[in-house]
Amino acid sequence: MKPFLGYLQVECGLSANTMDAYGRDVRYLLESFATKGAHTLSRVTPRHVVEHMQNLHSKRGLAGESVVRHLASVRIFFRWAIATDRMDTDPSDILERPSRWRRLPDVLSPSQTKRLLAVPSEVDLYGGDGSLRLRDAAMLELMYASGLRASEVCSIDLRDLADTLGVIRITGKGGRQRLVPMGVPAREAVTAYINDARPKLAARNMTGNQRLLLSVRGRALTRIAVWQIVDRNANAAGLRVHPHMLRHSFATHLLGGGADLRVVQEMLGHSDIATTQIYTHVDRTQIKAMHKKFHPRG
Fold it and tell me: Is residue 101 part of a domain?
């Protein structure tokens, strides 16, 4: 498994999270083959592969997107096996290449977003620790203003901020970097946090950590911590929100306001514009709802 993961990292340039997902998929794939008597790759047949894919839905109950991701894992694994002379033929060639099924993402309305972003300044979630409230405000404003993933916001370094230009450098999937505008509210929230809160948090852990966002102990935030912070503030606002909803809302609100699709693609860091186009479908859904609600013949 280590050689395969090395291939994903070096040759394919995949992010750590994607590598973890593909690794889990392939481990389950090999376990499935072993239960059918195919303990080595030389014994794997197309039938084994087809049955494995069928069981993902029928027995494990995986949703369409998860099955499609498993299919990608299977294909790249066998491609690697052939390239490294572990197999002569690809037993996954028999599988069809379905067009990707996509569920429309959950999106906050502008008023809900405003309610969420107001929580750090209006609600004391930390028993008087103003440093953490300023940190939460900076994090939430950044995630919405710049469309950041949880993994991206917790990996921002101080040197990634270009405050005079009003942009921030983001390192996304596969190590790809992009510059994204912050917007005035986010810049103000980040400045207040850096000036009045971050030095206090950093002093609690004298390691010279250069991450922008710090925990109560002065350590760099983790993805799990980002999820917890978003959830804590969302509960205070009476909402159910996960970090990616802020990214979805960022894209949907931009496109709804007339932003160019290619510009939004660049800001999100999508390599394929088809990934960005899902947000146009979200906007069309909202248009239909408004038509049905207000048109006299709706």
Answer: no
**Over the stretch 91-110, which tens digit does the pLDDT of each residue have?**
888 776 655 555 567 889 99
Element (H, E) at 167: strand 167-171
| Strand arrangement of the beta sheet that strand 167-171 belongs to | 161-162, 167-171, 177-181
Q: How many CB atoms lie within 10 A of CB 80?
A: 19
On whether both 23 and 82 belong to a single domain, the answer is yes
Buried b vs exposed e over 25-49: b needs ≥16 C-beta within 10 Å?
A: bbebbbebbeeeebeebeebeeebb
As annotated, the active-site residues are: 149, 173, 244, 247, 270, 279
Clarify whether residues 234 and 133 are in a common domain.
Answer: yes
Dihedral-angle region of residue 28 (phi above 0 means left; psi in -120 to 50 means alpha; beta otherwise): alpha
Assessment of whether the complete model's pTM goes beyond 0.70: no
Residue 178: which H helix or E strand, with range?
strand 177-181
Last residue of a domain, one of 31, 63, 94: 94
User: CATH number of the domain that 72 lies in?
Assistant: 1.10.150.130
